Amino acid sequence: MNDTYLQILSHFDLEEKAVEVTPFGNGHINDTLKVTTSSGKGKYILQRINHHIFKNVDMLQHNIHTVTSHIRKKLEERNETDIDRKVLTFLPAKDGKQYYHDGENYWRVCLMIPDSKSLEEVNPELSFEAGKAFGDFQSMLADLPEGTLGETIPDFHNMIFRLQQFRDALDANAAGRRDKVKDLVEEIEKRAEAMCIQEDLYREGKLRKRINHCDTKVNNILFDSNSGKVLCVIDLDTVMPGYVLSDIGDFIRTGANTGAEDDPDLNRVNVNMEIFKAYTRGYMETARSFLTPLEISLLPYGGRLLTYMQTVRFLTDYINGDTYYKIHHPEHNLQRTKAQFKLLQSLEEHAEEMDGFMKTWL
Predict the structure, then answer these.
(1) What is the C-alpha end-to-end distance of the chain, expressed in Å?
(2) Is 344 helix (H, G, I), strand (E, B) or coil?
(3) DSSP state of 212
(4) pLDDT value at position 262?
(5) How many Cα atoms occupy the beta-carbon half-sphere of 279 within 13 Å?
(6) Are the C-beta atoms of 14 and 6 separated by less than 8 Å?
(7) pTM for the complete prediction?
(8) Is 321 left (phi over 0), alpha (psi -120 to 50) or beta?
(9) What is the spatial distance between Cα 159 and Cα 161, in angstroms, rounded to a whole number?
(10) Helices (H) and strands (E) in the chain, counts
(11) What is the pLDDT of residues 32-52, one digit of tens each?
């Protein structure tokens, strides 16, 4: 085993001796490693935190500690069994901090949840369970006082901010691509005012900020390997204050898309209404108790908003010369933009049906 990892792990109080460290999972942000111990089982997860994205590691780890402690308390109040498999458990470093800093990188350790699995593909049945899981996650955190958590990525889902980045990119035209995408620019600007509703409603006091996951993909849920039942929500780095539209919107954008995020064949890209309805039913089963009528009515709009936002972000990066997202070919960000815009158009075509579906809960 790499001596470097052994040295890092020595700064945490591990119950079992580490004997092997191997890459784990397919995350794009942090480096994640499985720690196998002398018992022969994967016991811990070691992660190197990407501090270029999460610049305030103290805040990040404070958020995660607060969230996991609060969820554990809620599960205990419900008299749940097997709690250690239903919420992540992070081990403090020996100096008491929620991470270890080696002078260059930041590291954290959590317990590996045994007999668990994550999934990549969705169907209506799985979407229903995912909706329940993310709704329950929000519900358990709904009573955290405002100001308890910080924004680990400031303005992450702020549409006004994303549009300003987009317009700055257009003004700079760093890669000389602006004229090539003028039709897409026109489509984005045509929708800009309508896509800033949540910020306007917040300023008017009609919409509040809540604790959101902000990355509601199905692979951020762990399922029991045997029963297939939901265990817990994972990947808590972006748990922070925001609008509930973000969480349901991001699942619609990723899970209810019949094509790929960067699908080169736009004919394959549409919204899967069965997945939208299944996820929404599950979500409302566990989240309805804390949602306002306005929030409920705006949930389908969240799908359009997050898809529009991602369209804007991909196109911004393309205009800037591909400085943020990893690309596999020179036109990759443009391909992504077009696929996301096609999904947005499909969501707009189904907007009346989706809005009507929400009236069941109003």
Answers:
(1) 57
(2) helix
(3) E
(4) 96
(5) 29
(6) no
(7) 0.93
(8) left
(9) 5
(10) 11, 11
(11) 999 998 887 778 999 999 999
CB 234 within 8 A of CB 221: yes
Q: Which amino acid is at 65?
A: H
Residue matched to tokens 């989706």 = 354
Rounded CA separation 335/15 (Å): 48
Burial class (CB in 10 A: 0-12, 13-18, 19+), 94: exposed
- Three-state SS at 276: helix
Report residue 249: phi and psi, to 5°. Answer: -65, -40
Beta-strand (E) ranges in the chain?
18-23, 31-37, 42-49, 90-91, 100-101, 106-111, 116-117, 210-212, 221-224, 230-233, 240-242
Answer whether 336's CB lies under 8 Å from 314's CB.
yes
157's tokens: 């889902």
Mean pLDDT of 101-106: 95
Distance, CA of 350 to CA of 273 (rounded, Å): 8
- Burial profile 236-269: b = 16 or more Cβ within 10 angstroms, e = fewer: bbbbbbbbbbbbbbbbbbbbbbebeebbeebeeb
For the chain, give the number of residues: 362
